[in-house]
Amino acid sequence: MSHTRPLGAQISHMLKDRGVDVIFGIPGVHNQEMYRGIEEAGITHVLARHEQGAGFMADGYARATGKPGVAYVITGPGLTNIMTPMGQAYSDSVPMLVISSCLDETAATKGQLHQMKDQRAAAETVCDWSEEARSAQAAYALINRAFMEFHTARRRPKHIQVPIAQLEAVASPHDPADMGLCDGVQQMEPALFPVLPQMIKEARKPLLILGGGARDGHDDLRRLLARCPIPVFTTYAGRGIVAPEYPYLFGSTLARPDSAAIVAEADLVIAIGTELAEVDLWRAHLGDTQRMVRIDVDPAVLAASGRGATRFKAAAHTVFRGLDAAADLPMSFDWTPAQIAATRDRWRAEIDAERPGIIPVCDALRACLPEGTMIYSDMTQFAYTAKEVWDMDAPGHWHHPTGFGTLGYATPAAIGGAVARKGLPTMAIIGDYGFHYTMAELGVAVELGLPLPIILWDNGKLKEIEDSMVRAQIAPNAVVARNPDFCKLAEALGAYSAAPRTLAAMQDAVRAAFEADGPTLIHVTPDII
Question: Does residue 349 belong to any structural domain of this protein?
Fold first, then answer.
């Protein structure tokens, strides 16, 4: 006989059957029925200090595992608070499922607790879709739809809201037969092969541009490049797809203005899994291309790829596997490792001149990290520099709020990543101003006993904004906020702290933080030597 429960409890049981083992959120009187089934279902709940923190934790968990991050929030302000993380997840193609309560009726009754004019529509502005489940079967169908799309389409956040009366109403469980609906179906245009190998055979100076959507199948790609050495640019999200020692790696340097000249040298440019958006290039166009190929799973990206481009709808790993299996691909091209190395050296000097003193700190930090460290960074000059000069050993190990550009992302996102990666090293990098946004979430890391180093880069101001205002001849009179004693603040929350004054001391503090029984805030200033 089926086990009837309130729908709020049934939803947790269904999520458990879908492989969900952690939910992030904050309970309230409107969504408390969703909490009835969490423990019974065997799911861990992580209590955030703010719904924005819960959303970033779910984002960080999803990026670390590849599984959807799930969050429970209340009606009204609970949902609006998590909309910023939803917008970030949408920009960066992160699978996140936000389930909220909603009022049973809003048209004829006013003045209710947490009332909004149109909660569902508000959420839809920052996610893939937002729908209301007015019955148990509708809730199950929408959850199935979300997980199906997480498996088969571009991975982006979804929102499901359930009226309070429905959450409280007794419901039968979901049908386990529906589980098979989420089996992934890979798509690939039949025309892709043998057209693409032939294009590569005809080229003398081909170029690959790899985005975050190209992370899957990187082993196949590395085998391919070992015998067919095509030079590679990556976007920031694509770092680590190609090994750092690959001699034909231009790195994540598309934002260098004269990278356009490199693109113009190429007689074939193949862009895979990237929008080539403003936040990838920081200029209007990639550059003049003689022949352009765009490969992506999102038809919207292909449609916007420009006149004259050859377009294929395909997952990156199918492309890499197919090319790796192709015979007679060229074993050399007209690029040389010396040319690429000289270009990268010149760009590194430019980056050092633009933001002096940060590169040596990046180098020292990288040298002391354990193998496989996963990094979550924030909108801070330290991260902007590191993203261009710090080549990653593996893909999907540096996460940054690239598209939406939200301050305060790194600390809670790293907590979500650390929850997902028990026993594996995880680290946050955040600026002093960004830390203000979500500093309360440090208490969550303390409660959970997470050995999480948090590198706090404190230049005492919104330095990137100050530099931009000065360049625009605007008086930078709103870029400094009074900072607390960050180390004492961390200790008040129960965390460890360190304030190293040398690079060697910083390295010692980082090593100790990975061995600690809780988080450590490591306060670093630009005058570190």
Answer: no
Average model confidence (pLDDT) across the chain: 94
Residues 6+ apart with CB under 8 A from 478: none
For residue 66, which phi and psi values (nearest 5 degrees)?
80, -10
Phi and psi, residue 375, nearest 5°: -115, 135
Does any domain span residue 450?
A: yes
Domain stop point among 181, 206, 227: 181
Q: What is the pLDDT of residues 420-437, one digit of tens each?
A: 999 999 999 999 999 999
- CB of 347 closer than 8 Å to CB of 491: no
Give the phi and the psi of residue 63 in degrees, each rounded to 5: -65, -35
Range of the domain at 158: 5-181
Calpha distance 491→489 (Å, rounded): 5
The span from the CA of 224 to the CA of 164, in Å, is 54
Residue 188's pLDDT band (cuts 50, 70, 90): low
Q: For the chain, how many structural domains are there in total?
A: 3
User: Are 43 and 156 members of one domain?
Assistant: yes
Query: Is beta strand 170-171 parallel, antiparallel or unpaired with respect to 5-6?
Result: antiparallel
Q: Are 50 and 443 in contact (CB under 8 A)?
A: no
**Contact yes or no for 184/153 (Cβ under 8 A):** no
Q: Which residues contact 55 (CB under 8 A, 6 or more apart)?
A: 24, 71, 81, 82, 84, 85, 86, 88, 89, 96, 98
Whether the CA torsion 152, 154, 156, 162 is positive or negative: it is: negative
Report the DSSP beta bridge partners of residue 312: 295
Out of 342, 376, 399, pick the residue that ends a domain: 342
pLDDT of 175: 86
- pLDDT digit string (tens) for 292-350? 999 999 999 988 877 778 998 988 999 998 898 888 999 999 999 999 999 999 999 99
